[in-house]
Design brief:
This protein is of the alpha+beta class. The protein contains 13 helices and 21 strands. The strands form five sheets. Strands 1, 4, 5, 6, 8, 9, 10, 11 and 12 form a nine-stranded mixed beta sheet that branches. It has a six-stranded antiparallel beta sheet with strand order 15-17-16-19-14-18, sandwiched between helices. The longest helix has 17 residues. The protein starts with a strand and ends with a strand. The mean pLDDT is 94.
Length: 422
Protein backbone atom coordinates (compact mmCIF):
# COMPACT_ATOMS: atom_id res chain seq x y z
CA UNK A 1 0.00 0.00 0.00
CA UNK A 2 1.19 3.55 -0.79
CA UNK A 3 2.86 5.60 1.93
CA UNK A 4 2.66 9.40 1.74
CA UNK A 5 3.21 12.23 4.20
CA UNK A 6 2.68 16.00 4.41
CA UNK A 7 5.70 18.31 4.34
CA UNK A 8 6.81 21.90 4.91
CA UNK A 9 6.83 23.17 1.37
CA UNK A 10 9.28 25.83 0.19
CA UNK A 11 7.45 28.15 -2.17
CA UNK A 12 7.28 31.70 -3.53
CA UNK A 13 5.22 34.47 -1.92
CA UNK A 14 1.92 34.93 -3.70
CA UNK A 15 2.94 38.13 -5.48
CA UNK A 16 6.09 36.48 -6.90
CA UNK A 17 4.77 33.12 -8.07
CA UNK A 18 4.55 34.09 -11.74
CA UNK A 19 8.13 35.40 -11.72
CA UNK A 20 9.55 32.37 -9.92
CA UNK A 21 7.67 29.43 -11.43
CA UNK A 22 8.69 27.92 -14.74
CA UNK A 23 8.19 25.09 -17.14
CA UNK A 24 9.99 21.84 -16.15
CA UNK A 25 13.68 21.46 -16.90
CA UNK A 26 13.27 18.71 -19.49
CA UNK A 27 10.84 20.39 -21.91
CA UNK A 28 13.20 23.07 -23.19
CA UNK A 29 16.87 23.44 -24.03
CA UNK A 30 19.45 25.79 -22.52
CA UNK A 31 18.95 28.55 -25.08
CA UNK A 32 15.18 28.50 -24.62
CA UNK A 33 15.57 28.67 -20.83
CA UNK A 34 18.05 31.53 -21.16
CA UNK A 35 15.59 33.42 -23.35
CA UNK A 36 12.61 32.84 -21.04
CA UNK A 37 14.62 33.90 -17.97
CA UNK A 38 16.12 36.99 -19.60
CA UNK A 39 15.76 40.00 -17.32
CA UNK A 40 14.21 37.92 -14.52
CA UNK A 41 16.64 37.04 -11.74
CA UNK A 42 13.78 35.35 -9.85
CA UNK A 43 13.16 32.71 -12.56
CA UNK A 44 13.49 29.14 -11.30
CA UNK A 45 15.50 28.38 -14.45
CA UNK A 46 18.50 29.79 -12.55
CA UNK A 47 18.18 26.69 -10.32
CA UNK A 48 16.80 23.97 -12.61
CA UNK A 49 18.66 25.07 -15.78
CA UNK A 50 21.66 26.55 -13.96
CA UNK A 51 23.87 26.55 -17.05
CA UNK A 52 22.09 29.78 -18.03
CA UNK A 53 24.16 31.52 -15.34
CA UNK A 54 27.26 30.87 -17.49
CA UNK A 55 28.19 31.95 -21.02
CA UNK A 56 26.24 30.36 -23.85
CA UNK A 57 27.68 26.98 -24.79
CA UNK A 58 28.57 25.94 -21.23
CA UNK A 59 27.73 22.25 -20.74
CA UNK A 60 24.77 21.56 -18.51
CA UNK A 61 26.87 18.77 -16.96
CA UNK A 62 29.81 21.02 -16.02
CA UNK A 63 30.63 20.62 -12.30
CA UNK A 64 30.32 24.41 -11.83
CA UNK A 65 26.74 24.25 -13.08
CA UNK A 66 25.62 22.08 -10.15
CA UNK A 67 27.46 24.34 -7.71
CA UNK A 68 25.75 27.46 -9.03
CA UNK A 69 22.39 25.68 -8.77
CA UNK A 70 22.90 25.41 -5.00
CA UNK A 71 24.15 29.00 -4.78
CA UNK A 72 21.03 30.17 -6.60
CA UNK A 73 18.75 28.06 -4.37
CA UNK A 74 20.37 29.66 -1.30
CA UNK A 75 20.03 33.11 -2.88
CA UNK A 76 16.31 32.60 -3.58
CA UNK A 77 15.73 31.72 0.06
CA UNK A 78 17.92 34.51 1.43
CA UNK A 79 16.15 37.07 -0.76
CA UNK A 80 12.71 35.82 0.31
CA UNK A 81 11.78 34.63 -3.18
CA UNK A 82 11.28 31.16 -1.73
CA UNK A 83 9.96 30.74 1.82
CA UNK A 84 9.40 27.54 3.79
CA UNK A 85 5.96 26.96 5.30
CA UNK A 86 5.92 26.75 9.09
CA UNK A 87 4.02 23.47 9.34
CA UNK A 88 3.64 20.22 7.44
CA UNK A 89 0.72 20.13 5.04
CA UNK A 90 -0.46 18.78 1.74
CA UNK A 91 -1.26 20.94 -1.28
CA UNK A 92 -3.87 20.76 -4.01
CA UNK A 93 -2.72 21.69 -7.51
CA UNK A 94 -5.12 22.30 -10.40
CA UNK A 95 -4.20 22.63 -14.06
CA UNK A 96 -6.68 23.83 -16.66
CA UNK A 97 -5.75 23.18 -20.26
CA UNK A 98 -7.41 24.45 -23.38
CA UNK A 99 -6.12 23.15 -26.72
CA UNK A 100 -9.08 23.65 -29.08
CA UNK A 101 -6.84 24.37 -32.06
CA UNK A 102 -5.45 20.85 -31.76
CA UNK A 103 -8.80 19.12 -31.36
CA UNK A 104 -8.94 18.92 -27.54
CA UNK A 105 -11.53 20.29 -25.13
CA UNK A 106 -10.85 22.44 -22.08
CA UNK A 107 -10.48 20.38 -18.93
CA UNK A 108 -9.11 20.65 -15.40
CA UNK A 109 -7.16 18.03 -13.49
CA UNK A 110 -6.63 18.15 -9.72
CA UNK A 111 -3.52 16.67 -8.12
CA UNK A 112 -2.54 16.26 -4.48
CA UNK A 113 1.03 17.38 -3.76
CA UNK A 114 2.51 14.87 -1.30
CA UNK A 115 5.78 13.35 -0.19
CA UNK A 116 5.87 9.81 -1.56
CA UNK A 117 7.95 7.12 0.15
CA UNK A 118 11.18 6.24 -1.67
CA UNK A 119 10.91 2.69 -0.39
CA UNK A 120 7.70 2.31 -2.39
CA UNK A 121 9.68 3.09 -5.55
CA UNK A 122 12.30 0.50 -4.65
CA UNK A 123 9.69 -2.17 -3.81
CA UNK A 124 7.49 -1.54 -6.86
CA UNK A 125 4.49 -0.01 -5.10
CA UNK A 126 5.31 3.06 -7.19
CA UNK A 127 5.30 1.52 -10.65
CA UNK A 128 7.18 2.61 -13.74
CA UNK A 129 6.49 2.00 -17.42
CA UNK A 130 9.63 3.46 -19.01
CA UNK A 131 13.32 2.58 -18.97
CA UNK A 132 15.68 5.13 -17.46
CA UNK A 133 19.14 6.09 -18.74
CA UNK A 134 22.06 5.95 -16.32
CA UNK A 135 23.47 9.31 -17.46
CA UNK A 136 20.12 11.05 -16.94
CA UNK A 137 19.73 9.43 -13.52
CA UNK A 138 23.20 10.61 -12.49
CA UNK A 139 22.46 14.16 -13.65
CA UNK A 140 19.29 14.33 -11.56
CA UNK A 141 21.02 12.69 -8.58
CA UNK A 142 23.72 15.38 -8.66
CA UNK A 143 21.03 18.06 -8.74
CA UNK A 144 19.16 16.54 -5.78
CA UNK A 145 22.39 16.02 -3.81
CA UNK A 146 23.75 19.53 -4.26
CA UNK A 147 20.44 21.23 -3.41
CA UNK A 148 19.47 18.70 -0.74
CA UNK A 149 15.96 19.11 -2.11
CA UNK A 150 13.44 17.95 -4.69
CA UNK A 151 13.16 21.18 -6.65
CA UNK A 152 10.69 19.70 -9.16
CA UNK A 153 7.93 17.15 -8.51
CA UNK A 154 7.30 13.73 -10.00
CA UNK A 155 3.97 13.24 -11.82
CA UNK A 156 2.07 10.23 -10.38
CA UNK A 157 -1.35 8.72 -11.11
CA UNK A 158 -3.56 6.67 -8.80
CA UNK A 159 -6.84 4.73 -9.21
CA UNK A 160 -9.81 7.02 -8.63
CA UNK A 161 -10.80 7.36 -4.98
CA UNK A 162 -14.10 8.90 -3.86
CA UNK A 163 -12.81 10.00 -0.45
CA UNK A 164 -9.83 11.83 -1.96
CA UNK A 165 -12.14 13.35 -4.57
CA UNK A 166 -14.30 14.74 -1.75
CA UNK A 167 -11.27 16.40 -0.13
CA UNK A 168 -10.28 17.83 -3.49
CA UNK A 169 -13.78 19.22 -4.09
CA UNK A 170 -13.80 20.85 -0.65
CA UNK A 171 -10.63 22.84 -1.26
CA UNK A 172 -11.22 23.53 -4.96
CA UNK A 173 -14.40 25.41 -4.03
CA UNK A 174 -12.38 27.88 -1.97
CA UNK A 175 -9.99 30.71 -2.81
CA UNK A 176 -6.64 29.41 -4.10
CA UNK A 177 -3.27 30.55 -2.80
CA UNK A 178 -2.02 30.89 -6.38
CA UNK A 179 -4.04 31.49 -9.53
CA UNK A 180 -2.37 32.48 -12.79
CA UNK A 181 -1.95 31.55 -16.45
CA UNK A 182 1.53 30.54 -17.56
CA UNK A 183 3.05 33.09 -19.90
CA UNK A 184 4.48 30.42 -22.22
CA UNK A 185 2.48 27.23 -21.65
CA UNK A 186 -0.88 29.06 -21.67
CA UNK A 187 -2.32 26.81 -18.95
CA UNK A 188 -4.06 28.02 -15.81
CA UNK A 189 -2.33 26.97 -12.58
CA UNK A 190 -3.94 27.07 -9.12
CA UNK A 191 -2.69 25.90 -5.73
CA UNK A 192 -4.39 25.48 -2.35
CA UNK A 193 -2.81 24.63 1.02
CA UNK A 194 -4.37 21.70 2.91
CA UNK A 195 -3.48 22.40 6.54
CA UNK A 196 -6.49 21.07 8.45
CA UNK A 197 -5.23 18.13 10.59
CA UNK A 198 -8.37 16.10 9.92
CA UNK A 199 -8.03 16.46 6.16
CA UNK A 200 -4.32 15.66 6.35
CA UNK A 201 -5.13 12.49 8.28
CA UNK A 202 -7.78 11.47 5.74
CA UNK A 203 -5.38 11.92 2.81
CA UNK A 204 -2.62 9.93 4.51
CA UNK A 205 -4.96 7.07 5.42
CA UNK A 206 -6.67 6.92 2.01
CA UNK A 207 -3.36 6.69 0.17
CA UNK A 208 -2.50 3.92 2.62
CA UNK A 209 -5.37 1.91 1.12
CA UNK A 210 -4.19 2.37 -2.48
CA UNK A 211 -2.20 -0.67 -3.67
CA UNK A 212 -0.08 1.14 -6.28
CA UNK A 213 0.87 4.53 -7.67
CA UNK A 214 1.96 4.94 -11.29
CA UNK A 215 4.65 7.21 -12.67
CA UNK A 216 3.08 9.23 -15.45
CA UNK A 217 6.04 11.54 -16.04
CA UNK A 218 9.35 11.92 -14.23
CA UNK A 219 10.96 8.48 -14.31
CA UNK A 220 14.47 9.94 -13.96
CA UNK A 221 13.41 12.26 -11.13
CA UNK A 222 11.82 9.32 -9.29
CA UNK A 223 14.90 7.12 -9.68
CA UNK A 224 17.24 9.93 -8.65
CA UNK A 225 15.23 10.85 -5.56
CA UNK A 226 14.98 7.25 -4.40
CA UNK A 227 18.69 6.58 -4.96
CA UNK A 228 19.79 9.75 -3.16
CA UNK A 229 17.49 8.83 -0.28
CA UNK A 230 19.09 5.39 -0.11
CA UNK A 231 22.56 7.00 -0.11
CA UNK A 232 21.65 9.28 2.76
CA UNK A 233 20.21 6.39 4.76
CA UNK A 234 23.38 4.33 4.23
CA UNK A 235 25.62 7.22 5.31
CA UNK A 236 23.58 8.08 8.40
CA UNK A 237 24.61 5.88 11.36
CA UNK A 238 21.53 7.09 13.24
CA UNK A 239 19.08 6.42 10.40
CA UNK A 240 15.54 5.87 11.73
CA UNK A 241 13.47 5.70 8.56
CA UNK A 242 11.29 8.75 9.10
CA UNK A 243 13.77 11.38 7.86
CA UNK A 244 12.74 13.72 5.06
CA UNK A 245 15.27 12.14 2.68
CA UNK A 246 13.19 8.96 2.73
CA UNK A 247 10.51 10.81 0.74
CA UNK A 248 10.30 12.70 -2.52
CA UNK A 249 7.81 15.28 -3.76
CA UNK A 250 5.09 14.13 -6.14
CA UNK A 251 1.83 15.42 -7.54
CA UNK A 252 -0.73 12.61 -7.59
CA UNK A 253 -3.69 12.77 -9.98
CA UNK A 254 -6.71 10.45 -10.31
CA UNK A 255 -6.05 8.35 -13.41
CA UNK A 256 -9.38 9.27 -15.01
CA UNK A 257 -8.49 12.98 -15.09
CA UNK A 258 -5.24 12.69 -16.99
CA UNK A 259 -4.84 13.60 -20.63
CA UNK A 260 -2.43 11.61 -22.74
CA UNK A 261 -1.89 13.14 -26.16
CA UNK A 262 -0.87 11.35 -29.32
CA UNK A 263 2.86 10.94 -29.91
CA UNK A 264 3.31 10.97 -33.66
CA UNK A 265 6.01 9.96 -36.13
CA UNK A 266 7.54 11.63 -39.19
CA UNK A 267 9.86 9.72 -41.53
CA UNK A 268 12.43 11.03 -44.01
CA UNK A 269 11.94 8.43 -46.80
CA UNK A 270 9.94 5.39 -47.94
CA UNK A 271 12.90 2.99 -47.88
CA UNK A 272 13.23 3.05 -51.67
CA UNK A 273 9.54 2.51 -52.36
CA UNK A 274 7.27 4.68 -54.48
CA UNK A 275 4.12 6.04 -52.85
CA UNK A 276 2.05 3.43 -54.69
CA UNK A 277 4.31 0.59 -53.56
CA UNK A 278 4.22 1.87 -49.97
CA UNK A 279 0.41 2.03 -49.92
CA UNK A 280 0.24 -1.44 -51.47
CA UNK A 281 2.56 -2.80 -48.77
CA UNK A 282 0.38 -1.20 -46.08
CA UNK A 283 -2.74 -2.89 -47.45
CA UNK A 284 -1.40 -6.31 -46.43
CA UNK A 285 -2.00 -5.59 -42.72
CA UNK A 286 -4.24 -2.51 -42.80
CA UNK A 287 -7.53 -1.38 -44.32
CA UNK A 288 -6.35 1.69 -46.24
CA UNK A 289 -8.82 4.49 -47.04
CA UNK A 290 -8.02 7.84 -48.68
CA UNK A 291 -9.57 10.64 -46.59
CA UNK A 292 -8.58 13.52 -48.88
CA UNK A 293 -6.64 16.71 -48.22
CA UNK A 294 -8.34 17.75 -44.95
CA UNK A 295 -6.59 16.79 -41.72
CA UNK A 296 -7.76 13.42 -40.45
CA UNK A 297 -7.29 12.31 -36.84
CA UNK A 298 -7.53 8.63 -35.78
CA UNK A 299 -10.91 8.01 -34.15
CA UNK A 300 -10.13 4.87 -32.14
CA UNK A 301 -7.44 2.48 -31.00
CA UNK A 302 -5.69 0.53 -33.79
CA UNK A 303 -6.48 3.22 -36.36
CA UNK A 304 -3.69 5.40 -37.72
CA UNK A 305 -3.61 8.50 -39.91
CA UNK A 306 -1.05 8.64 -42.69
CA UNK A 307 -0.09 11.88 -44.42
CA UNK A 308 1.55 11.32 -47.79
CA UNK A 309 1.71 13.40 -50.99
CA UNK A 310 -0.80 15.96 -49.67
CA UNK A 311 -3.38 13.31 -48.81
CA UNK A 312 -4.55 11.85 -45.49
CA UNK A 313 -5.27 8.15 -45.20
CA UNK A 314 -6.98 6.05 -42.54
CA UNK A 315 -5.10 2.84 -41.70
CA UNK A 316 -7.04 0.30 -39.63
CA UNK A 317 -5.11 -2.72 -38.39
CA UNK A 318 -6.69 -5.93 -39.65
CA UNK A 319 -7.88 -8.61 -37.27
CA UNK A 320 -5.10 -11.01 -36.36
CA UNK A 321 -2.27 -8.53 -36.89
CA UNK A 322 -1.72 -8.12 -33.12
CA UNK A 323 -2.27 -10.12 -29.93
CA UNK A 324 -4.99 -8.42 -27.89
CA UNK A 325 -4.01 -10.49 -24.83
CA UNK A 326 -0.44 -9.20 -24.83
CA UNK A 327 -0.17 -5.81 -23.01
CA UNK A 328 2.70 -4.70 -25.28
CA UNK A 329 1.72 -6.22 -28.62
CA UNK A 330 -1.75 -4.65 -28.42
CA UNK A 331 -0.37 -1.11 -28.17
CA UNK A 332 -0.63 1.06 -31.28
CA UNK A 333 3.00 2.11 -30.85
CA UNK A 334 3.93 -1.58 -31.11
CA UNK A 335 1.64 -2.24 -34.08
CA UNK A 336 2.95 0.73 -36.04
CA UNK A 337 6.57 0.01 -35.13
CA UNK A 338 6.38 -3.62 -36.17
CA UNK A 339 4.10 -3.54 -39.21
CA UNK A 340 5.01 -0.16 -40.71
CA UNK A 341 8.29 1.25 -39.44
CA UNK A 342 10.17 -2.05 -39.21
CA UNK A 343 8.64 -4.41 -41.78
CA UNK A 344 8.14 -1.85 -44.54
CA UNK A 345 10.45 1.09 -43.82
CA UNK A 346 13.33 -0.79 -42.21
CA UNK A 347 13.41 1.37 -39.07
CA UNK A 348 14.31 -1.05 -36.28
CA UNK A 349 15.62 1.21 -33.49
CA UNK A 350 13.35 4.13 -32.67
CA UNK A 351 15.85 5.61 -30.23
CA UNK A 352 18.79 5.83 -32.65
CA UNK A 353 17.59 5.77 -36.27
CA UNK A 354 18.10 9.24 -37.78
CA UNK A 355 15.41 8.68 -40.43
CA UNK A 356 12.60 9.13 -37.91
CA UNK A 357 11.52 11.93 -35.60
CA UNK A 358 8.69 12.32 -33.09
CA UNK A 359 6.10 15.07 -32.65
CA UNK A 360 4.02 15.54 -29.50
CA UNK A 361 0.29 15.82 -30.04
CA UNK A 362 0.20 19.31 -28.53
CA UNK A 363 1.73 20.52 -31.81
CA UNK A 364 -1.35 19.34 -33.73
CA UNK A 365 -1.68 17.54 -37.05
CA UNK A 366 -0.71 20.76 -38.79
CA UNK A 367 2.87 20.26 -37.63
CA UNK A 368 2.94 16.85 -39.32
CA UNK A 369 1.63 18.34 -42.54
CA UNK A 370 4.15 21.19 -42.37
CA UNK A 371 7.17 18.95 -41.97
CA UNK A 372 6.13 16.78 -44.90
CA UNK A 373 5.04 19.61 -47.19
CA UNK A 374 8.30 21.52 -46.72
CA UNK A 375 10.27 18.49 -47.89
CA UNK A 376 11.99 17.79 -44.58
CA UNK A 377 10.05 14.52 -44.22
CA UNK A 378 8.45 12.16 -46.73
CA UNK A 379 5.49 10.95 -44.68
CA UNK A 380 3.82 11.34 -41.27
CA UNK A 381 1.97 8.89 -39.08
CA UNK A 382 -0.51 10.02 -36.42
CA UNK A 383 -1.42 7.59 -33.63
CA UNK A 384 -4.43 7.33 -31.34
CA UNK A 385 -3.26 8.23 -27.80
CA UNK A 386 -2.26 5.49 -25.40
CA UNK A 387 -4.84 5.18 -22.61
CA UNK A 388 -4.08 5.43 -18.89
CA UNK A 389 -5.61 1.96 -18.53
CA UNK A 390 -3.04 0.58 -20.98
CA UNK A 391 -0.19 2.25 -19.10
CA UNK A 392 -1.38 0.82 -15.79
CA UNK A 393 -1.71 -2.66 -17.31
CA UNK A 394 1.81 -2.47 -18.70
CA UNK A 395 3.16 -1.37 -15.31
CA UNK A 396 1.12 -3.96 -13.38
CA UNK A 397 2.51 -6.78 -15.54
CA UNK A 398 6.09 -5.58 -15.08
CA UNK A 399 6.47 -4.58 -18.71
CA UNK A 400 8.01 -1.47 -20.23
CA UNK A 401 6.33 0.77 -22.81
CA UNK A 402 8.01 1.04 -26.23
CA UNK A 403 9.99 4.27 -26.86
CA UNK A 404 8.11 7.51 -27.53
CA UNK A 405 4.74 6.11 -26.48
CA UNK A 406 3.25 8.68 -24.09
CA UNK A 407 2.92 12.45 -24.05
CA UNK A 408 1.20 13.84 -20.96
CA UNK A 409 -0.13 17.38 -21.17
CA UNK A 410 -0.17 19.77 -19.43
CA UNK A 411 3.25 19.43 -17.83
CA UNK A 412 3.60 20.18 -14.13
CA UNK A 413 4.61 23.73 -13.34
CA UNK A 414 7.90 23.90 -11.44
CA UNK A 415 8.55 26.22 -8.51
CA UNK A 416 5.09 26.20 -6.95
CA UNK A 417 6.33 23.95 -4.12
CA UNK A 418 9.78 22.53 -3.27
CA UNK A 419 10.63 19.77 -0.79
CA UNK A 420 13.79 19.95 1.34
CA UNK A 421 15.43 16.66 2.27
CA UNK A 422 16.79 17.95 5.60
Amino acid sequence: MAIVKPFKGVRPPKMMVEQVSSRPYDVLDSDEARSEAEGNEKSLYHIIKPEINFPQGTSEYDARVYEIARAQFDKFQNEGWLVQDSKEQYYLYAQTSCLPANGYKEKTQYGLVVCAYSGDYMSGVIKKHELTRADKEEDRMKHVRVNDANIEPVFLAYPDNDVLNAVTDKYASGEPEYDFVGDVDGFRHRLWCISDPCDIDVITKEFGKIPALYIADGHHRSAAAALVGAEKAKNNPYHRGDEEYNYFMAVCFPASQLTILDYNRVVKDLNGLTSEQFLSALSVNFLVENKGADEYRPAELHEFSLYLDGQWYSLKAKEGTFNSEDPIDVLDVSISSKLILDDILGIKDLRRDKRIDFVGGIRGLGELRRRVDNGEMRMALALYPVTMSQIMTVADTGNIMPPKATWFEPKLRSGLVIHKLS
